Amino acid sequence: MLAVDGLTVRYRGVTAVSDVDIQVADGEVVALLGPSGCGKSTLLRAVAGLERPDAGTVSWDGRDLGDVPVHKRGFGLVFQDGQLFPHRDVRGNVAFGLRMAGKPLDRVDELLSLVGLAGYGARRVTELSGGEQQRVALARALAPNPRLLLLDEPLSALDRALREQLAVDLSRVLRASGATALVVTHDHDEAFTLADRVAIMSAGRIVQVGRPEEVWRRPVDAETAHFLGASLVVPAAVADGVVTTEFGVAALPWAPEGDVVLALRPTALVVGEGPVRGTVVARVHRRDHVRLSVEVDSRTVDAVSGVGDAPVVGAGVSLRLDPAGIAVVGPTP
Ligand code: ADP
Ligand code: MG
Question: Which helix (H) or strand (E) holds 305?
Protein backbone atom coordinates (compact mmCIF):
# COMPACT_ATOMS: atom_id res chain seq x y z
CA MET A 1 0.00 0.00 0.00
CA LEU A 2 0.92 3.64 -0.44
CA ALA A 3 1.93 5.65 2.62
CA VAL A 4 2.70 9.34 2.59
CA ASP A 5 4.19 10.61 5.85
CA GLY A 6 4.86 14.18 6.88
CA LEU A 7 5.18 15.29 3.27
CA THR A 8 6.11 18.92 2.66
CA VAL A 9 6.81 20.49 -0.74
CA ARG A 10 7.92 24.10 -1.15
CA TYR A 11 8.38 26.17 -4.29
CA ARG A 12 10.92 28.89 -3.61
CA GLY A 13 9.62 29.67 -0.15
CA VAL A 14 5.93 28.99 -0.91
CA THR A 15 4.72 25.91 0.94
CA ALA A 16 2.42 24.08 -1.50
CA VAL A 17 2.04 20.89 0.57
CA SER A 18 2.46 21.02 4.32
CA ASP A 19 3.11 18.01 6.55
CA VAL A 20 0.63 15.69 4.81
CA ASP A 21 -0.07 12.11 5.90
CA ILE A 22 -2.26 9.86 3.76
CA GLN A 23 -2.50 6.13 3.03
CA VAL A 24 -4.10 4.29 0.14
CA ALA A 25 -4.79 0.62 0.81
CA ASP A 26 -4.65 -2.12 -1.79
CA GLY A 27 -7.69 -1.88 -4.09
CA GLU A 28 -8.83 1.39 -2.58
CA VAL A 29 -9.76 4.57 -4.45
CA VAL A 30 -8.97 7.76 -2.54
CA ALA A 31 -9.92 11.22 -3.81
CA LEU A 32 -7.93 14.34 -2.96
CA LEU A 33 -10.57 17.06 -2.97
CA GLY A 34 -10.03 20.77 -2.53
CA PRO A 35 -10.21 24.16 -4.19
CA SER A 36 -7.82 25.25 -6.91
CA GLY A 37 -4.33 26.05 -5.60
CA CYS A 38 -4.62 24.04 -2.36
CA GLY A 39 -1.76 21.70 -3.31
CA LYS A 40 -3.51 18.63 -4.75
CA SER A 41 -1.41 18.37 -7.92
CA THR A 42 1.80 19.01 -6.02
CA LEU A 43 0.99 16.18 -3.62
CA LEU A 44 0.12 13.85 -6.50
CA ARG A 45 3.30 14.81 -8.37
CA ALA A 46 5.38 14.14 -5.27
CA VAL A 47 3.81 10.68 -4.98
CA ALA A 48 4.57 10.08 -8.66
CA GLY A 49 8.18 11.16 -8.16
CA LEU A 50 7.84 14.26 -10.34
CA GLU A 51 8.40 16.58 -7.39
CA ARG A 52 11.07 16.19 -4.72
CA PRO A 53 9.73 16.57 -1.18
CA ASP A 54 11.38 19.07 1.18
CA ALA A 55 10.41 16.85 4.09
CA GLY A 56 8.62 13.56 4.66
CA THR A 57 8.44 10.31 2.74
CA VAL A 58 6.46 8.46 0.09
CA SER A 59 6.65 4.71 0.56
CA TRP A 60 5.14 1.55 -0.89
CA ASP A 61 4.67 -1.49 1.35
CA GLY A 62 7.07 0.11 3.81
CA ARG A 63 9.80 0.81 1.26
CA ASP A 64 10.86 4.44 0.93
CA LEU A 65 10.57 5.53 -2.72
CA GLY A 66 12.70 8.66 -2.25
CA ASP A 67 15.44 7.41 -4.58
CA VAL A 68 13.16 5.56 -7.00
CA PRO A 69 12.66 7.51 -10.26
CA VAL A 70 9.21 8.11 -11.78
CA HIS A 71 9.28 5.27 -14.32
CA LYS A 72 10.50 2.71 -11.76
CA ARG A 73 7.72 3.35 -9.23
CA GLY A 74 5.21 1.16 -11.06
CA PHE A 75 2.54 3.86 -11.01
CA GLY A 76 0.22 4.85 -13.87
CA LEU A 77 -0.50 8.51 -14.56
CA VAL A 78 -3.51 10.23 -16.13
CA PHE A 79 -3.67 14.01 -16.47
CA GLN A 80 -6.41 16.51 -17.27
CA ASP A 81 -5.67 16.44 -20.98
CA GLY A 82 -4.81 12.85 -21.83
CA GLN A 83 -1.41 13.74 -23.32
CA LEU A 84 -1.87 11.10 -26.01
CA PHE A 85 0.56 10.63 -28.88
CA PRO A 86 -1.21 12.41 -31.74
CA HIS A 87 0.70 10.50 -34.44
CA ARG A 88 -0.37 7.09 -33.12
CA ASP A 89 -3.79 5.49 -33.42
CA VAL A 90 -5.79 4.34 -30.40
CA ARG A 91 -4.21 0.89 -30.42
CA GLY A 92 -0.73 2.43 -30.69
CA ASN A 93 -1.35 4.65 -27.69
CA VAL A 94 -2.59 1.81 -25.48
CA ALA A 95 0.15 -0.55 -26.72
CA PHE A 96 2.71 2.08 -25.72
CA GLY A 97 1.75 1.53 -22.08
CA LEU A 98 2.27 -2.20 -22.46
CA ARG A 99 5.52 -1.87 -24.37
CA MET A 100 6.98 0.49 -21.76
CA ALA A 101 6.29 -2.12 -19.12
CA GLY A 102 7.69 -4.94 -21.28
CA LYS A 103 4.27 -6.64 -21.32
CA PRO A 104 2.79 -8.58 -24.27
CA LEU A 105 0.57 -6.48 -26.52
CA ASP A 106 -2.40 -8.87 -26.59
CA ARG A 107 -4.27 -7.01 -23.83
CA VAL A 108 -5.06 -3.96 -26.00
CA ASP A 109 -8.52 -5.13 -27.08
CA GLU A 110 -9.43 -6.20 -23.56
CA LEU A 111 -8.42 -2.74 -22.25
CA LEU A 112 -10.35 -0.96 -24.99
CA SER A 113 -13.54 -2.84 -24.14
CA LEU A 114 -12.97 -2.14 -20.44
CA VAL A 115 -13.07 1.61 -21.11
CA GLY A 116 -15.96 1.32 -23.57
CA LEU A 117 -13.92 1.77 -26.75
CA ALA A 118 -14.13 -1.70 -28.31
CA GLY A 119 -13.59 -1.40 -32.04
CA TYR A 120 -11.80 1.98 -31.79
CA GLY A 121 -8.28 0.54 -32.15
CA ALA A 122 -7.58 1.91 -35.63
CA ARG A 123 -9.06 5.39 -35.01
CA ARG A 124 -6.73 8.37 -34.98
CA VAL A 125 -6.72 9.94 -31.52
CA THR A 126 -7.02 13.43 -33.03
CA GLU A 127 -10.43 12.41 -34.41
CA LEU A 128 -11.79 11.40 -31.01
CA SER A 129 -13.95 13.52 -28.71
CA GLY A 130 -12.43 14.78 -25.46
CA GLY A 131 -14.24 12.07 -23.50
CA GLU A 132 -12.99 9.34 -25.83
CA GLN A 133 -9.44 10.66 -25.57
CA GLN A 134 -9.61 10.47 -21.77
CA ARG A 135 -10.81 6.86 -22.05
CA VAL A 136 -7.76 6.10 -24.22
CA ALA A 137 -5.49 7.79 -21.66
CA LEU A 138 -7.07 5.67 -18.94
CA ALA A 139 -6.63 2.46 -20.96
CA ARG A 140 -2.99 3.38 -21.62
CA ALA A 141 -2.34 4.00 -17.93
CA LEU A 142 -4.09 0.75 -16.90
CA ALA A 143 -2.32 -1.31 -19.56
CA PRO A 144 0.78 -2.31 -17.58
CA ASN A 145 -1.34 -3.16 -14.51
CA PRO A 146 0.18 -0.39 -12.38
CA ARG A 147 0.17 -1.03 -8.66
CA LEU A 148 -1.17 2.51 -8.19
CA LEU A 149 -3.04 4.78 -10.59
CA LEU A 150 -2.57 8.54 -10.13
CA LEU A 151 -5.21 10.70 -11.81
CA ASP A 152 -5.00 14.50 -11.81
CA GLU A 153 -8.39 16.10 -12.64
CA PRO A 154 -8.95 13.42 -15.31
CA LEU A 155 -12.40 14.74 -16.24
CA SER A 156 -12.15 18.49 -15.72
CA ALA A 157 -11.42 19.34 -19.36
CA LEU A 158 -14.79 17.84 -20.36
CA ASP A 159 -18.16 19.53 -20.38
CA ARG A 160 -20.46 18.98 -17.46
CA ALA A 161 -22.86 16.35 -18.81
CA LEU A 162 -20.00 14.25 -20.16
CA ARG A 163 -18.09 14.65 -16.90
CA GLU A 164 -20.92 13.15 -14.87
CA GLN A 165 -21.27 10.20 -17.25
CA LEU A 166 -17.53 9.61 -17.37
CA ALA A 167 -17.22 9.79 -13.58
CA VAL A 168 -19.67 6.90 -13.34
CA ASP A 169 -17.79 5.00 -16.07
CA LEU A 170 -14.43 5.70 -14.46
CA SER A 171 -15.71 4.43 -11.13
CA ARG A 172 -16.87 1.22 -12.85
CA VAL A 173 -13.53 0.77 -14.65
CA LEU A 174 -11.54 1.29 -11.44
CA ARG A 175 -13.65 -1.33 -9.62
CA ALA A 176 -13.61 -3.77 -12.56
CA SER A 177 -9.84 -3.58 -12.86
CA GLY A 178 -9.32 -3.77 -9.08
CA ALA A 179 -7.12 -0.67 -9.35
CA THR A 180 -5.66 1.14 -6.39
CA ALA A 181 -5.97 4.84 -7.16
CA LEU A 182 -5.40 8.35 -5.93
CA VAL A 183 -7.61 10.83 -7.83
CA VAL A 184 -7.27 14.60 -7.65
CA THR A 185 -10.41 16.68 -8.20
CA HIS A 186 -11.89 20.04 -7.18
CA ASP A 187 -15.44 18.72 -7.81
CA HIS A 188 -17.13 17.14 -4.79
CA ASP A 189 -19.71 15.28 -6.87
CA GLU A 190 -16.87 13.66 -8.78
CA ALA A 191 -14.95 12.80 -5.61
CA PHE A 192 -18.04 11.26 -4.02
CA THR A 193 -18.83 9.28 -7.19
CA LEU A 194 -15.34 7.85 -7.48
CA ALA A 195 -13.87 7.38 -4.06
CA ASP A 196 -14.01 4.91 -1.19
CA ARG A 197 -12.48 7.65 0.93
CA VAL A 198 -12.23 11.37 0.38
CA ALA A 199 -9.33 13.49 1.69
CA ILE A 200 -10.18 17.17 1.83
CA MET A 201 -7.30 19.59 1.32
CA SER A 202 -7.08 23.24 2.20
CA ALA A 203 -4.02 25.48 1.94
CA GLY A 204 -1.55 22.60 1.59
CA ARG A 205 -2.96 20.47 4.41
CA ILE A 206 -5.36 17.56 4.61
CA VAL A 207 -8.11 18.76 6.94
CA GLN A 208 -10.41 15.72 6.85
CA VAL A 209 -10.40 12.13 5.61
CA GLY A 210 -13.45 9.91 5.58
CA ARG A 211 -15.98 7.91 3.64
CA PRO A 212 -18.08 10.12 1.34
CA GLU A 213 -21.19 10.08 3.53
CA GLU A 214 -19.13 10.87 6.65
CA VAL A 215 -17.52 13.89 5.02
CA TRP A 216 -20.85 14.97 3.52
CA ARG A 217 -22.74 14.75 6.82
CA ARG A 218 -19.97 15.77 9.22
CA PRO A 219 -17.65 18.33 7.58
CA VAL A 220 -14.89 19.09 10.05
CA ASP A 221 -15.28 22.89 9.99
CA ALA A 222 -17.36 25.66 8.42
CA GLU A 223 -14.83 26.22 5.61
CA THR A 224 -15.09 22.58 4.58
CA ALA A 225 -18.89 22.74 4.81
CA HIS A 226 -18.90 25.78 2.51
CA PHE A 227 -16.58 24.04 0.09
CA LEU A 228 -19.05 21.12 0.02
CA GLY A 229 -21.88 23.44 -0.95
CA ALA A 230 -23.33 24.72 2.32
CA SER A 231 -24.33 28.38 2.23
CA LEU A 232 -25.62 28.93 5.74
CA VAL A 233 -24.29 27.97 9.16
CA VAL A 234 -26.79 28.00 12.05
CA PRO A 235 -26.80 26.90 15.68
CA ALA A 236 -29.31 24.19 16.60
CA ALA A 237 -30.12 21.54 19.17
CA VAL A 238 -30.64 17.81 18.68
CA ALA A 239 -32.85 15.79 21.02
CA ASP A 240 -33.96 12.20 20.40
CA GLY A 241 -32.74 12.36 16.81
CA VAL A 242 -34.73 15.48 15.97
CA VAL A 243 -32.98 18.77 15.27
CA THR A 244 -34.65 22.07 16.17
CA THR A 245 -33.57 25.21 14.34
CA GLU A 246 -34.92 28.66 13.61
CA PHE A 247 -36.19 27.14 10.34
CA GLY A 248 -38.19 24.38 12.03
CA VAL A 249 -37.47 20.78 12.91
CA ALA A 250 -36.16 17.77 10.98
CA ALA A 251 -35.39 14.14 11.77
CA LEU A 252 -31.61 13.68 11.96
CA PRO A 253 -31.14 10.27 13.59
CA TRP A 254 -27.40 10.19 12.85
CA ALA A 255 -26.65 13.55 14.50
CA PRO A 256 -25.02 13.84 17.93
CA GLU A 257 -27.39 14.84 20.73
CA GLY A 258 -27.18 18.29 22.27
CA ASP A 259 -26.05 21.64 20.90
CA VAL A 260 -24.70 21.50 17.35
CA VAL A 261 -23.71 23.78 14.51
CA LEU A 262 -25.53 22.97 11.28
CA ALA A 263 -24.41 23.74 7.74
CA LEU A 264 -27.36 24.08 5.39
CA ARG A 265 -27.06 23.42 1.69
CA PRO A 266 -29.64 25.17 -0.49
CA THR A 267 -31.58 21.88 -0.66
CA ALA A 268 -32.06 21.98 3.14
CA LEU A 269 -34.71 24.69 2.75
CA VAL A 270 -37.61 23.72 0.52
CA VAL A 271 -40.67 25.75 -0.44
CA GLY A 272 -43.64 24.10 1.27
CA GLU A 273 -45.52 23.99 4.55
CA GLY A 274 -43.21 25.32 7.23
CA PRO A 275 -42.89 27.81 10.05
CA VAL A 276 -40.64 30.34 8.29
CA ARG A 277 -41.99 32.88 5.82
CA GLY A 278 -40.01 34.99 3.40
CA THR A 279 -40.00 36.74 0.04
CA VAL A 280 -38.35 35.42 -3.11
CA VAL A 281 -35.70 37.91 -4.30
CA ALA A 282 -34.03 35.85 -7.06
CA ARG A 283 -34.41 32.53 -8.81
CA VAL A 284 -32.31 30.42 -11.16
CA HIS A 285 -33.45 27.31 -13.01
CA ARG A 286 -31.32 24.24 -12.53
CA ARG A 287 -31.79 20.93 -14.29
CA ASP A 288 -34.24 19.33 -11.87
CA HIS A 289 -35.06 22.11 -9.42
CA VAL A 290 -35.18 25.86 -9.04
CA ARG A 291 -32.65 27.62 -6.82
CA LEU A 292 -34.14 30.55 -4.90
CA SER A 293 -32.82 33.40 -2.81
CA VAL A 294 -35.38 34.13 -0.13
CA GLU A 295 -35.35 37.12 2.18
CA VAL A 296 -36.21 36.01 5.70
CA ASP A 297 -36.10 38.58 8.52
CA SER A 298 -33.87 40.98 6.52
CA ARG A 299 -31.40 38.20 5.68
CA THR A 300 -31.14 36.28 2.42
CA VAL A 301 -31.03 32.48 2.48
CA ASP A 302 -30.74 29.90 -0.32
CA ALA A 303 -33.66 27.54 -0.87
CA VAL A 304 -35.07 25.28 -3.58
CA SER A 305 -38.41 24.46 -5.12
CA GLY A 306 -39.71 22.07 -7.78
CA VAL A 307 -39.52 23.21 -11.38
CA GLY A 308 -43.26 23.05 -12.06
CA ASP A 309 -44.48 25.16 -9.16
CA ALA A 310 -41.54 27.53 -8.66
CA PRO A 311 -42.59 30.85 -7.09
CA VAL A 312 -41.86 34.07 -8.97
CA VAL A 313 -39.61 36.85 -7.70
CA GLY A 314 -41.56 38.92 -5.20
CA ALA A 315 -43.78 36.03 -4.09
CA GLY A 316 -44.22 35.23 -0.40
CA VAL A 317 -43.26 31.64 0.44
CA SER A 318 -43.06 29.28 3.41
CA LEU A 319 -39.98 27.13 3.87
CA ARG A 320 -39.62 23.73 5.43
CA LEU A 321 -36.44 21.96 6.51
CA ASP A 322 -35.30 18.92 4.49
CA PRO A 323 -32.85 16.67 6.35
CA ALA A 324 -31.09 15.60 3.12
CA GLY A 325 -29.47 19.04 2.81
CA ILE A 326 -28.25 19.29 6.39
CA ALA A 327 -24.71 18.69 7.65
CA VAL A 328 -23.44 18.85 11.23
CA VAL A 329 -20.19 20.84 11.46
CA GLY A 330 -17.36 19.74 13.68
CA PRO A 331 -14.93 16.91 14.28
CA THR A 332 -16.49 13.49 14.82
CA PRO A 333 -15.79 12.21 18.31
P1 ADP B 1 -3.98 22.44 -7.03
O2 ADP B 1 -3.60 21.25 -7.88
O3 ADP B 1 -4.74 22.07 -5.79
O4 ADP B 1 -4.73 23.45 -7.83
P5 ADP B 1 -1.13 23.00 -7.00
O6 ADP B 1 -0.51 21.85 -6.34
O7 ADP B 1 -1.06 23.06 -8.48
O8 ADP B 1 -2.66 23.15 -6.52
O9 ADP B 1 -0.49 24.35 -6.44
C10 ADP B 1 -0.33 24.58 -5.05
C11 ADP B 1 0.40 25.91 -4.84
O12 ADP B 1 1.72 25.82 -5.32
C13 ADP B 1 -0.23 27.07 -5.59
O14 ADP B 1 -0.08 28.22 -4.78
C15 ADP B 1 0.60 27.17 -6.84
O16 ADP B 1 0.60 28.49 -7.32
C17 ADP B 1 1.96 26.76 -6.36
N18 ADP B 1 2.76 26.10 -7.42
C19 ADP B 1 2.40 24.99 -8.10
N20 ADP B 1 3.36 24.63 -8.96
C21 ADP B 1 4.36 25.54 -8.83
C22 ADP B 1 5.64 25.73 -9.46
N23 ADP B 1 6.10 24.88 -10.38
N24 ADP B 1 6.39 26.80 -9.06
C25 ADP B 1 5.95 27.65 -8.12
N26 ADP B 1 4.76 27.53 -7.49
C27 ADP B 1 3.98 26.50 -7.84
MG1 MG C 1 -4.06 20.85 -9.85
Answer: strand 299-305
Q: Where are the beta strands (DSSP E) in 92-226?
A: 148-152, 181-185, 197-202, 205-210
Read off the amino acid at residue 296.
Answer: V
For residue 52, give the ligand nearest its CA: 1
8, 14, 54: residue to mutate for ligand 1 pocket, most atoms within 8 A of CB: 14
Domains along the chain? 2-222 (3.40.50.300), 229-331 (2.40.50.140)
Q: Which ligand 1 atom is at minimum distance from the Cα of 153?
A: 2
Distance 239 CA to ligand 2 centre (A): 43
pLDDT tens readout for residues 215-261: 999 999 999 999 999 999 999 999 999 999 999 999 999 999 999 99
Give the model confidence (pLDDT) of 48-106 as tens digits. Answer: 999 999 999 999 999 999 999 998 999 999 988 878 999 999 999 999 888 877 888 88
- To the question of pTM greater than 0.90 for the whole model, the response is yes
Name the E strands within 189-257. Answer: 197-202, 205-210, 232-239, 242-245, 248-251
In contact, 61 and 212? CB cutoff 8 Å: no
